[in-house]
Every structure is written in C-alpha cells, then in structure tokens.
Amino acid sequence: MSANSFDNADFQAALVHELKNHLGLLGMTLDRIPRCGDPDHDEPLDAARLLCEDVTDRLRQALWLYKSDKGVRSPNVDAYSPHDLIAELAARTRALARDRFSVETRLSEVLPAVVFLDRELVEMAMMNAIQNSLAYAHRRIALEADAQDGWLVLTVRDDSDGYPDHVLDSMAAGRAYRAHGTGLGLQFARLIAQLHENRGRAGTLELANESGAVFRLRLP
Questions:
Q1: Which of 27, 20, 217, 220 is nearest to 129 (CA)?
Q2: Cys bridge to 23: 6, 12, 56, 195, which one at CB 3.0-4.6 A?
Q3: In which region does residue 162 sit, left (phi positive, over 0), alpha (psi from -120 to 50) or beta (all else)?
Q4: How many CB atoms lie within 10 A of CB 107?
Q5: Pseudo-torsion of CA 212, 139, 24, 216, nearest 10°?
Q6: Tens digit of pLDDT for each residue in 38-74?
Q7: Dist. CA 96–CA 200, nearest whole Å
Q8: Which residue has the higher pLDDT, 5 or 76?
Q9: Are 199 and 187 in contact (CB under 8 A)?
Q10: From residue 201, how far is each of 101, 150, 151, 194 by CA, in Å?
Q11: Which of 208, 205, 200, 134 is nearest to 168 (CA)?
Q12: Which one of 92-96, 146-150, 178-182 scores highest in mean pLDDT?
C-alpha cells in the first residue's frame, strides 16, 4: 500500500468518525422533540429518529471494518454480565420505540452471571436486529438470553410478518446474497458471530419465522 493510499484511508476513516459523531448529536436533538399525538408530526419524527440511529450504526460498522483491515480481525473478548447487556439493549430499544411497542426481556434461569464476548460487536449485531424489529414489528419486541449446551443464545423476537423466504434460505445455507438495508445488517451480524470462537466452535446466526421474525445469535 502506498503512503498516499494509506493517508487517504486514514482520512476517510476520520471523516466517517466525524459524521458518526454529528449524527449522534442529531439523534440526541431529535430525541428531545416530544410526540404530540398528531400522526402527521409523530410518524415522520419517529422515522427520522430511527433512520438516524440506523445510519449511525452503519458508520460504526464501517469504522470497525476499517480497523480490522489494518490488523488482525479478531474480537476483543472480555467478561460481561449478560443480564446487564440485555437490560441496556432493552433500554435503548424502549428509547427508540417511544411507547409505540411493548418491549419485553426474558432471561433464562440457567443464564450464567458472566459470559465472554466482544461487547461492542455483539451490541452492533443485536442492534441490527432491533432496528429491523422497530421498522417492521406490529406491537411487540422481546429480547432474550439463554444458555444451551455451552452456548450463549441471544435472541430478538417480534410480531412482524417475518423474514422473506430468500433471506431465510440464504442464511440457512450460509450463502452470501446481494443485500441492502436489512440484508447488510444480517451479513454483518453473521460475521460477528463467526468471529467468536471457543474450543473449536464458532458462533452462528440463526433466523426463523415463529409468529414473527426471530433473530438468534449463538456464541460459544
């Protein structure tokens, strides 16, 4: 790589980082605008808030991909509480939903107090699913955490019309497909899952339609 291309890549990353910060400030400004009960006011406002959050998350993903291309693409694994993770994701979801949805949390009794994962990457993967649910759910969104046979299972479930068949087929077969919007987020989430490895096992992403869309991240 030439010095100029290296400098250009760093400059582009700095611009992306600045855009992400500006969008974060814009999102905070939109959050301070109250809903007034008028659909002509509330619906465009909610759409703008969700779009702002979605673009901010996409920029975070772009920055992570840039950093990973500068070195070894490996997760920064540490010990975290899955209970705290779900609680914080639920708080973010409720803030974005602004009473438009019921947001539930379901924690298994066998869930350990501490798990090992890359908190930033897992949050990005889960927020991809949450953004999808906020866009397509009818009334309910549920965030779940369970432990199954040595796997941490994190689930986002909603009462939407579910995933299209071609998305389910592609993800089940492990195939890449021409994606945009939701599809890009799902492919990124699958990459995050696969980067988590332990004792010869790699994480997986599972999608299903069970009275709505089900996004299930399984980490070893």
A1: 217
A2: 56
A3: left
A4: 14
A5: -20
A6: 788 877 887 788 777 778 877 877 777 776 666 656 7
A7: 38
A8: 76
A9: no
A10: 36, 10, 10, 9
A11: 208
A12: 146-150
In this predicted structure, the answer to whether residue 37 has a pLDDT above a threshold of 90 is no
Strands 78-80 and 115-117: antiparallel
What b/e readout covers 108-139, taking b as 16+ CB neighbours within 10 angstroms? eeebeeebebbbebbbbbbbbbbbbbbebbee
Which helix or strand (DSSP H or E) is residue 186 part of? helix 182-195
Query: If one looks up domain 78-219 in CATH, what number appears?
Result: 3.30.565.10
Nearest partner of 215 among 129, 106, 123, 146, judged by Cα:
129
Q: Which two tokens stand for residue 112?
A: 């350990």
Q: How confident is the model at residue 167 (pLDDT cuts 50, 70, 90)?
A: confident
CB 110 within 8 A of CB 147: yes
* Residue 81 near residue 114, CB atoms below 8 Å: yes
